[in-house]
Amino acid sequence: MKKIALLAALVCAAVIVTCYTNPETGRKGLMLLNSSQEASLGLSAFQDIKKNTPRTTNASEQALVEKVGRKISGVVKLSNAQWEYVCFKSEEPNAFCLPGGKIGVYNAILPITQNEAGLAAVMGHEVAHATARHGGERMSESLLISLGGIALDVAMAEKPEETRQLALGAYGVGTTLGRTLPHSRSQELEADRMGLLYMARAGYDPREAVKFWKRFKDFKGAGGSVPAFLSTHPTDDRRIAQLEELMPEAIAEYEKHRK
Ligand SMILES: [Zn+2]
Predict the structure, then answer these.
(1) Domain residue limits at 43
(2) What is the pTM of this model?
């Protein structure tokens, strides 16, 4: 990862336009894509996933994902978003939000989220990855490392399949060919922080986020499989500690939006 950071810093120093600053946190990252390119990558990745992953057959699971998804997306700004919420049938407890507002929840996570607010914690976190453009940042790193930093449209034209696989990996969706890149520790903590405020603004009690992460820790402790999106860094304890630090601010948001 140090190598990536160094390369990113070099590219950022050379071409100022490839840098992106997160408006919420001020963190800088490499960005070789504009947001409409990102949205179209997200859309084609989502079409791919829908083709290859069965949907849940349980209508109430789909309805729940849609209900919580609408509330969360109602309080965020995501460029070029055409929101869509799909509950997939999968043994892996996982969820994602692709650029362009394409949200997927794997139904194996529902026993751990347990209630609407628990699911809002997960979806808030995933939507935050999209609004913070973490996937675009990782896609840029992938382009830099695997394809020598060529522009996305050139990559698409010359190596469409390779570019598609890079995108899926960068957006945290496992594929048979590509590998999933774990989010960095700073991206995870950023998504936790933003996601907590999103769920509060959407009218969900932010204290439920801490409860979810504790249940998730127990699930892993009991030998449950760990999905890539919720990978080992930061540790669950570090996440929970940060969420607890942010709780007064989040509760104030919640009280404001509750009525
Ligand atoms: Zn994450």
Answers:
(1) 33-136+156-257
(2) 0.85
